[in-house]
Amino acid sequence: MKFPRPTLSGILAVLALCLVVSGTAYAAGALPKNSVGAKQIKPNAVRSSDIKNGAVKLQDLHSSVATAFSGPPVAYATGQSTIQFVGGTKQSFDTLEIDQAGDYLITNNLRVFPKVGNPGDNLYCDILGGGQAISIVNHGVDMPAGVAQVTMHGILSDLPAGTVLDFQCRASTNEVTMTHDWTAVQVDLQ
Fold it and tell me: Whole-prediction pTM value?
């Protein structure tokens, strides 16, 4: 079998291919370690497929991104309380300790009903903690035959670790009956 005679364009193509392959190999081996940085990389040049799985750790990310991926917020909750009687003197009904500093969204769901034969009353409640308060004032409980659903909610900010939240209530003149359940969920206000 006779091979065709090489042409000048064929020889140049093979020579160019050899130079490209050897040049790439040389560049990969000749660049000093860590010599390519942000200035040498064009915007949008690095894609997810270019990064080895597990190569980027949470501590490598900007703090705002790391916070978003650090997991769910810390939450505290108490169970539903037993039936409690609220009279005209303010008293403490429950406490909740916050063991991590931060900002907290507090929600307290009250189920309040007047005492039998009582036409209703006004309810005054506070959740106190860290020198701050979430309050309901003069909330009418006027359903003699039913239950009033009352929700207290608000944010207590910059609570130090170890803060004890105190839930206190009083009725204005007559006695009412109440149960409640509440939560304190850490939130990021930044």
Answer: 0.59
Token readout for 169 is 């209530």
Residue 74's contacts (CB-CB under 8 Å, 6 or more residues apart) are 100, 102, 185, 186
Phi (first) and psi of residue 150, to 5 degrees? -125, 130
Task: Quote the pLDDT of residue 189.
Answer: 76
Q: Measured between alpha carbons, how far is 52 from 47 in angstroms, rounded to an integer? A: 11
Cα–Cα distance for residue pair 99/97, rounded to 1 Å: 6
Q: Which of 178, 160, 179, 120 is nearest to 144 (CA)?
A: 120
Contact 80, 184 (CB under 8 A): no
Confidence of residue 163 (pLDDT cuts 50, 70, 90): very high
Counting DSSP H helices and E strands in the chain, the numbers are 2, 9
75-187 is classed in which CATH architecture? Sandwich (2.60)
- Tracing tokens 């609570």 back to the chain, one arrives at 159
Q: pLDDT class for 151, splitting at 50, 70, 90? A: confident
